[in-house]
Amino acid sequence: MHGVFEENAGVFPKVFENEDDYFSYLSETAIFTATRGEVTYYFEPIRAKDYLNKPAIQAWSIHGKEVSIQPSEDDFQTHRSYQFQDLTTRGTVEFRSVCTQPFSATFVPAALHLGLLVNLEALESILKGTSLFEVFDYDYPRIRCLFSKKKISKTDLKLILPLTEALLTCAEDGLKNRGFGEEVYLAPLQERLAALKNRLD
After folding, report:
1. Do the Cβ atoms of 93 and 86 come closer than 8 Å?
2. Quick one: 73 and 10 in the same domain?
3. Which terms does the UniProt entry file under GO BP (predicted)?
4. Is residue 30 within 8 Å of residue 1, measured between CB atoms?
5. Domain span holding position 162
6. Rounded to whole angstroms, what are the CA distances from 170 to 107, 165, 185?
7. Which of 52, 82, 112 is the last residue in one of the domains?
8. Is the residue at 89 inside a domain?
9. Rounded CA gap, 52 and 73, in Å?
10. What is the C-alpha to C-alpha distance for residues 185 and 83, in angstroms, rounded to an integer?
11. What does each C-alpha distance from 11 to 20, 60, 72, 139, 169 come to in angstroms?
12. The pLDDT of residue 86
């Protein structure tokens, strides 16, 4: 149900300029669960901005029991979007859809994201300096669809490889600066990058 409205899943369609911009986007996301006591109830998705205006909502428990619930501001404590990156109600940043790695590469996504966050200034410089986003008119969902395929054309590889290499180096430098040897977890990405480069030779 979290995919009924496109604002609830996938890649953010634009770069948010400020908090108001982000919260305006969140207001379009869907809320579809509420907890009463120890029971979680599910209902047809409702945009967050419209939720509190509903006098009552027909909802169902996981066992199919139908109830009528009153919307409450407290329901937003457990409201989640399902973007690939999300700011949680706990104030943490959550990276999703990284569970599809081979078991041997379980720690790769965490190491990559940590390295980039530690080296945030360099990351921002890389992102500002790349022309990749301009080429695709800053259409982030389209960019993700194009480059998340198993088979990428040589033309598209030439576009993405410089950015890929820069980001991996940025993450590696960030982890090296931490001094815990965590950069070893990036080895599977280094191997994949080398294989992609070989395709262009």
Report:
1. yes
2. yes
3. glutathione biosynthetic process
4. yes
5. 98-200
6. 17, 8, 14
7. 82
8. no
9. 7
10. 25
11. 19, 30, 28, 10, 23
12. 63
Clarify whether residues 102 and 189 are in a common domain.
yes
Does an H or E element contain 143, and which?
helix 140-147
Whether 9 and 3 have beta carbons less than 8 Å apart is answered as yes
pLDDT tens digit string along 65-84?
999 999 999 998 877 666 65
Q: Which regions in the chain score pLDDT beneath 50? A: 1-2
pLDDT, tens digit, 9 for 90 and up, residues 30-47 = 888 899 998 999 999 898
- 146's enclosing H/E stretch is helix 140-147
At 174, list the tokens.
């960030």
**Radius of gyration of the chain, Cα coordinates, nearest whole angstrom:** 21
> Same domain for 42 and 111?
no
Tokens of 81: 């979007």
pTM of the full structure = 0.66
Is 190 found in the same domain as 160?
A: yes
| Structure-token pair, residue 36 | 């009463």
What is the rounded CA–CA span in Å between residue 29 and residue 22? Answer: 11
